[in-house]
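# step 3/5: fold
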Amino acid sequence: SPNKALAVIEEIKNSEDLTPADLETVSEIESELKERGKPKLWNFYADISLGGIHSQNVNSVSKTRLQSSSDDVIGFNSAKYDRTYSGSLGLTATRSLGEASSFMINTSFTDSDQEEETSDDFESYGLTLALDTYLGNQSLSPYLMLSKTDYQDDADSFSLLSGIGGYFSAGDRNSFSYGYSFSDSKNNKNTTDTTANETNAIGHGITLGHDFMFNELISSSTGLGYSISEAKDGTNDFETYDLNFRLNFAFPWVYFSVGDALSFNDYKHVDTSINSNRIRSDVTNTFDVMLTKAIGDIFPFIDPNKNLFMNFSYEKIISEANIINYDYIADSFSISFSKSFHLNK
């Protein structure tokens, strides 16, 4: 919202800590916003992304290559290494609602192709409706997301996710966020997976977060989460407790982010098809590193506006569980290219 941005700029200009260089930068932004004149009621965007992932344990094979099945220990002989390629297209429409609110409609399509196996061969379709608004000092964003995934060799999946997120600032460096979500996921039976709908589930989740700005280059994020999933088949009922921490470095030449997360999963019932003597419980540690670079920083003639981005990421998951099936280590590397277009400038 340009009006909201201009109001924030006025607050910044009145700050006692503003340096002459900062004032010059803020004044340039203010002039640019005013030159644009009256903002459009509707804005339309297109987002295109192409990428690939190399997985070093695509099937979460246990560390010992053994697994429990109906109280017997057998070999875990699934393939570990594979590559998956994907492409996605998103179309977004936003509409201003007054001076401080906006409404968004987004549709998306993703096509995924796995090189060796077919578990990640699918096409997915999504629709998102979201509202951004303010209530006092609270920024609130209720949303509704619908998706359908057509797997090549598995049951089709349908999901509904709705909820609300919010945040507020506390001083110049701190902000706090919170959220609630409700999910309803369904999987059709088909000839290749007659038990898919046993994982049909209703879920609830809550999150709390804190962001801190060390300076204009470095920031951190800390998050807590709790979720519960209640499935059609009781053996898939579980609760999850999350703790995560992330450091972000917004260098002029690259955006770099590193994070670490712990998830504690407690299942509610014995799964006799695996182990009739134990209720599954596990903890996963996920470490990741992400780099984002504008192609225009390297090849200005290809991307003069610096809105074509190259993204690299590495992820390592270590899972420890009381059932050997879920003791595993998985690494993956990914690269993607993404570009956004403003369709009605």
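# step 4/5: annotate
The mean pLDDT is 90.
# step 5/5: archive (pending)
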